[in-house]
Amino acid sequence: MTPARAAVLERVAASGSILLLDGLFLHRSELRHHWDYSIFLRVEWVRNHRVRDRPEPGHHRYHEGQNIYFRECEPWKRASIVIDNDDLAAPFIVSSEHSLEPGRWDR
Fold it and tell me: What sign for the dihedral angle of Cα 22, 28, 30, 33?
């Protein structure tokens, strides 16, 4: 069975626009060249994926995929900035390879 393709309205961003994308596995090698700047939110696995009484279907597969991604891509090393988000009330910057000076990202 072939998955159905969703109809997508293609748009072109205006010059100077900032596009924000959120998703899993965005620091993979084949995607890295698309980003000028990236953020990796570091969250302890157990905190981010609380163990439930009954595991959700597919949970093991997702967990293994995440392990492979972390092992092969090390997204915390590829990100422009790493933010520890274990405490939602007090996130903090762990590391940053780029300065956020005004005009730094102007093109």
Answer: positive
On whether the CB atoms of residues 25 and 38 are closer than 8 A, the answer is no
Q: What does the pLDDT look like over 12-24, one tens digit per residue?
A: 989 989 888 888 8
Written as six digits, the tokens of 104 are 């730094």
Q: In 3-state terms, what secondary structure has residue 50?
A: coil
pLDDT for res 103: 39
Region label for 103, one of left (φ > 0), alpha (ψ between -120 and 50) or beta (otherwise): left
Q: Give the total number of structural domains in the chain.
A: 1
Q: Which domain holds residue 75?
A: 29-96
Q: Do the bridges between strand 81-84 and strand 39-42 make them parallel or antiparallel, or are there none, so unpaired?
A: parallel
